[in-house]
Design brief:
45% strand
Amino acid sequence: MKKILIISALSVFILSSNIIKAQENTDTKDPKAKAILDKLSSKNKSYASIEAEFDYKLENKADGIDETQSGKILFSGNKYRLNIAGQEIVSDGTTLWTFIADADEVQISDVPEESESEDSFLNPSSIFTLYEKGFKYTYDKLETINGKSVDVIRLYPENPEEKSFHTIILKVIQENTQIQSMTIKSKDGNNFTYALKTFNPNVAINASSFKFDESSAGDVIDLR
């Protein structure tokens, strides 16, 4: 169950890198928030690739859950390599490999269509584009985090009945228009927070970056 929670939440953190502009609607989209989000989108769209390290926190006060783990991701377009919680998840845009270190097992599947996935949480690249489709948003406040001014924006799904979460809190560092953190607040009481520790755009990518060496796993399970 924990594996499913981690992957599902992370897919919100990071979804398609294709830019789909939100329709103008001043009744539901705060102009101040939109200006920040548009600037963030434009900046990240210019990068050929991004490598980042982050802390992942799962919190549920009612159930007494408070866990923090570290992760690392490299992605370019719809291709990515993710390491988190003893798992390595790799996609070349067509095939998805999930390697579970403790079991020495890799599961292979086709990358599902966006419409086939719950909440469309499939492709870990959404931290930079998630807000652009299907959300209302509002500017919340200005915070100081580690000595830096950070804009706090709240996002709400336009069709909440179709989603497993009700709010996303996005924090953007003013001086460089870089995401500081994203928190996904689920309807079941789970809060998933991803805080960026390092951010490196336009890193070099070799031919094996988005392929998994199946011979390195003791057990290969092909689900295609």
